[in-house]
Amino acid sequence: xxxxxxxxxxxxxxxxxxxxxxxxxxxxxxxxxxxxxxxxxxxxxxxxxxxxxxxxxxxxxxxxxxxxxxxxxxxxxxxxxxxxxxxxxxxxxxxxxxxxxxxxxxxxxxxxxxxxxxxxxxxxxxxxxxxxxxxxxxxxxxxxxxxxxxxxxxxxxxxxxxxxxxxxxxxxxxxxxxxxxxxxxxxxxxxxxxxxxxxxxxxxxxxxxxxxxxxxxxxxxxxxxxxxxxxxxxxxxxxxxxxxxxxxxxxxxxxxxxxxxxxxxxxxxxxxxxxxxxxxxxxxxxxxxxxxxxxxxxxxxxxxxxxxxxxxxxxxxxxxxxxxxxxxxxxxxxxxxxxxxxxxxx
Length: 346
Known about the structure:
single chain, 346 residues, alpha/beta, 8-stranded mixed β-sheet, 30% helix, 18% strand
């Protein structure tokens, strides 16, 4: 988040004249609209907003937001974003990436932008497939996923983006899905965080991985299989009839029944966004026996990378006068006198 003077904009102010070129029904449309609705709410200034992306379906995003944008190379959006933020810390930087772009070829760069804690928002669209390159399995694809590169089904153990982010030192972790009404609120919370805010957004790939997230996102099961984490509130789901309690024997979460709304008697844990251990347990819960944890899971700010760089710069120049000639002549240098130079030319 940046300290900025809020300005008045509308969703229309953030729409470009570019034709939005995603497949009809793609979840990216819903995410785009959620972002465009969120930017006026947070008082964002198009002249100070930058969207940076890598390669993939999600990475077409900068073309469709009326602000500054940078469509970079595969997996390297965090590296470009780091340079942009260091050059102009006043910019509000958003990184848009996908599970292939950000967790495979770009995994190394994602790790470093998180551990450095650059002040930016990282939106990772997770559709558990490579969409742009025609449906190959990705680092987040579930076991058994059939694709052109796994015709008999994937046997890889999938990566968990949020667990990866926590392991990389991220100070803000959140989850949502493309058509969720809570997506905008999640983005607002991410923007309010000072530092690297990592948001995993489950996104429906209508062509190559259709309805992959219906097991928790479909209307018929949403109430039962979604757990929206909210600071200071008990971790309840299934319309308050179930909750998560801490098993002291195994130091892990367990599902408990809540009778007559008495969640205290059931031992349901109250969500604390600053509890890193709880965050790890929430993002690593096996789905099925447990619901899908959504919302702001972890939020514990720390000094930012660009802030630390600025402090170092101020210390290094304090009490000094800029002198380029002195700098160039420092160390092992020599001077070629005019007479000697003429001799060399004769």
